[in-house]
Amino acid sequence: MKFRQIALGLALATAGLTGVVGTSVATAQEKVQFFPSLTGRTGPVAPNATQFANGYADYMKLVNARGGINGVMTLVEECETAYATDRGVECYERLKGKHGGATVFQPLSTGITFALTEKIPADKIPMITSGYGRSDSADGDIFKWNFPLIGHYWVAGDTVLQHIANKEGGWDKLKGKKIAVAYHDSPFGKELLPIMEERAKKHGFQLQLLPIPAPGVEQKAIWLQVRQQRPDYVVLQTWGVMTPTAIREAIAVGYPREKMFGTWWSGAEPDLKDVGAAAKGYSAVMMQHGAEPQSDVVKQILSMVYDKGQGVGPRNEVGQVLYMRGVVGAMLSVEGARAAQAKFGKGKPVTPEQARWGYENLNLTQADLDALGFKGVMRPVATTCSDHMGSAWARVHTWDGAKFVWASDWLQADKSLIDPMVKASAEKYAAEKKMTRRSKEDCQQ
Question: What is the mean pLDDT of the segment spanning 201-210?
Answer without folding.
Answer: 98
